[in-house]
Design brief:
Strand content of chain A: 35-45%
Radius of gyration of chain B: 22 Å
Number of domains of chain B: 2
Number of helices of chain B: 14
Number of helices of chain A: 4
Mean pLDDT of chain A: 92
Strand order of the largest sheet of chain A: 2-1-6-5-4-3
Strand content of chain B: 15-25%
Order of helices and strands of chain A: HHEEHEEEEH
CATH topology of chain A: Nuclear Transport Factor 2, Chain: A
Distance between the termini of chain B: 30 Å
Helix content of chain A: 25-40%
Oligomer: heterodimer
CATH architecture of chain A: Roll
CATH architecture of the largest domain in chain B: 3-Layer(aba) Sandwich
Mean pLDDT of chain B: 93
Strand order of the largest sheet of chain B: 4-10-9-8-7-5-6
Shape of chain B: globular
Radius of gyration of chain A: 18 Å
Order of helices and strands of chain B: HEEEHHEHEHEHEHEHEEHHHHEHEEEH
Distance between the termini of chain A: 36 Å
Structural class of chain A: alpha+beta
CATH topology of the largest domain in chain B: Aspartate Aminotransferase, domain 2
CATH class of chain A: Alpha Beta
Chain lengths: 168, 411
């Protein structure tokens, strides 16, 4: 292999690694901005940087599906805080699977919520389906869709992340 | 969401239970007798011979019910009850069929169209329900006991509204914390348009002169403070009461407050018990009961400290709260207490925020010191085990392990 081709490959590998690292940063940022300690709130300003202005947030519950943009999500979250439904929130990632093509990525990210970061047991758990768009040197979230474990929604990570490929 | 949390706790047998018998110190269900650490009868008066005799005497005189609206004609026992409660509180008092109905009667009368409301988000659910009945007055929810937020909002709203009503609890029923009375007094001094409505149901009887509660201890003299009391809980009868700054307001609520006109009255046996309880509150022995409860509260706090129990608050109230990580952990731990011979209450959403599930236990004069010792030893074991290897769906602590009530069998 010629030195030029070797250089191209290693540059491409390095770029790919950088892009994946940046994607990891974006996923971490999602969990960081929505988490907050007792008496606090999500980091709304940072949320505007992590999410695209036209991002959608979609929550699936046994009662139905709720669709939000950033503004309505903030209003919903603030109402929950005002009503004392939550007084703090800690969510962290357990495992993820990434698919990328061109300037977009789809991430399946399993999470746990806890009463505090060092709680011994989770409060709830579920899976985030995240679509991200690459902009220059960073990723921003276009869509965040999540559902939570329930009696009829088993949380089996092997099964959730196994996936299947069907040829068209 | 509410239904899901309750269904989970119900499925574990920790909610919606039915008692087979009750004698204060112990409670029986599922054919098991458990030591009772779940009652709000803090002074243990519900089996007092004078209350029981008065209930029977009232029933003999008036029958099981007095089925005429109080607006038309009231049972004669109301007169003595209100008169005694006025001596207890040092204020004009209006008795209502329950504390919830007292709120529903009072708030729409007190709060006018050009008033605004600030409601602590942890205030009792009955206060949230009552404020939903208000007409045009805007209701702002404020974070729990955040006086900085209250200060700011009262300052802003004072320019637009005639009066700003802050609605809070005197003692919060789940975490047992006390309203910040000193800061509230400063705010009352700073803002002449600020009025405060306090639900002091959990402080009635066991706290303050003649059991008037903590709110009236601080604001008994204040004409911009209204206090609601409970004649259930430590008072051990039935109904609620409003301690009002003047007689005019009392009569206004009696004449215009919906439930005062249309709801059924407290029935004679319980009115009789309430009158007898009010006499006990005015008696010289009442302070001894209060001191004894405080002694047991202090005893529990010291024992909990020694056992390193992670209590949510450490206020000198009879309500204690052990935080847990999840609803499953709450229900499994409560089952563990049942299995070891102790009755405690699971506290889950909506009684507490989704992120603050836990176990509430209470101390009453029914709990002997040896009961408290045994309970704390069991709580210590449960907490240690829970933190050590995690209960919940990962597996229960074996029921035959750890300390338990002396005479408890397997649940």
């Amino acid at each position: 292999m010629s030195p030029q081709i070797q250089l191209k490959i290693s540059t491409s590998l390095a770029q790919d690694a950088t892009i994946r690292l940046q994607l990891g940063d974006a996923i971490r940022a999602i969990y960081e901005v929505i988490s907050f300690p007792e008496g606090g709130e999500p980091d709304w300003e940072r949320m505007k940087k992590v999410f695209l202005p036209n991002a959608r947030l979609t929550r699936i519950t046994p009662e139905g599906v709720d669709c939000f943009d950033l503004e309505t999500f903030q209003a919903m979250a603030l109402e929950m805080l005002d009503r004392g439904i939550y007084t703090s929130f800690f969510e962290h990632e357990l495992i993820r699977r990434v698919n990328m093509f061109g300037a977009f990525a789809h991430v399946l990210s399993a999470y746990e919520t806890k009463t505090c970061p060092d709680a011994s047991y989770f409060l709830a758990r579920g899976v985030n389906s995240i679509q991200l768009l690459r902009e220059r040197d960073s990723w921003r979230v276009l869509s965040l869709l999540w559902d939570e474990e329930a009696e009829n929604v088993p949380f089996n990570l092997e099964h959730i992340f196994a996936g299947e490929i069907t040829r068209g | 969401m509410v239904s899901r949390c309750i269904v989970r706790a119900e499925a574990k047998g920790t909610l919606m239970r039915t008692a087979q018998s009750y004698e204060g110190r112990r409670i029986k269900f599922d054919n098991r007798t458990l030591y009772n650490f779940g009652s709000c009868s803090y002074l243990g008066l519900e089996r007092h011979p004078e209350l029981r005799a008065a209930a029977v005497a009232a029933m003999d005189e008036y029958g099981t019910q007095f089925s005429i609206s109080r607006a038309y004609l009231e049972c004669g026992l109301y007169q003595e009850l209100e008169s005694n409660l006025e001596k207890m509180t040092g204020r004009p008092v209006l008795v209502a069929p329950s504390t919830t109905l007292a709120h529903i009667a009072a708030l729409p009368v007190l709060i006018q169209d050009n008033d605004a409301v600030l409601l602590d988000h942890f205030a009792h659910a009955s206060l949230h329900s009552a404020t939903e009945l208000l007409g045009d007055a805007p209701v702002h929810l404020v974070r729990h006991s955040r006086m900085d937020q209250v200060d700011q909002l009262v300052g802003e709203l004072s320019c637009q509204y005639d009066r700003i009503w802050l609605i809070i609890d005197g003692i919060y029923s789940m975490f047992g914390d006390v309203a910040p009375f000193n800061e509230l007094a400063s705010l009352l001094d700073s803002y002449p348009r600020l009025h405060i409505y306090i639900d002091d149901a959990h402080a009635t009887s066991w706290l303050g002169t003649h059991g008037r509660g903590g709110a009236l201890m601080h604001f008994g003299h204040h004409d911009r403070v209204v206090v609601a009391l409970s004649l259930n809980k430590a008072f051990s009868a039935a109904g609620g009461a409003l301690a009002l700054p003047n007689t005019e307001l009392k009569m206004q609520i009696r004449r215009c407050g919906g439930p005062m006109l249309f709801s059924g009255p407290i029935q004679p046996p319980m009115l009789g018990a309430a009158v007898a309880s009010s006499r006990l509150h005015l008696g010289v022995d009442h302070v001894d009961r209060q001191h004894e409860l405080l002694r047991r509260i202090d005893y529990t706090l010291v024992a909990a400290d020694k056992a390193c129990l992670p209590l949510a608050t450490r206020c000198q109230t009879p309500i204690f709260f052990i935080p847990c990580d999840s609803v499953d952990q709450v229900t499994d731990t409560v089952r563990g207490f049942f299995n070891r011979g102790f009755y405690v209450c699971p506290s889950i959403f909506p009684a507490v925020p989704l992120n603050r599930p836990g176990i509430r236990f209470t101390i009453t004069l029914h709990n002997e010191l040896e009961d408290i010792d045994a309970f704390i030893a069991t709580a210590r074991f449960m907490v240690k085990e829970r933190l050590g290897k995690t209960v919940g769906s990962l597996g229960l602590i074996p029921d035959d392990s750890g300390p338990r009530a002396a005479d408890s069998g397997n649940y």
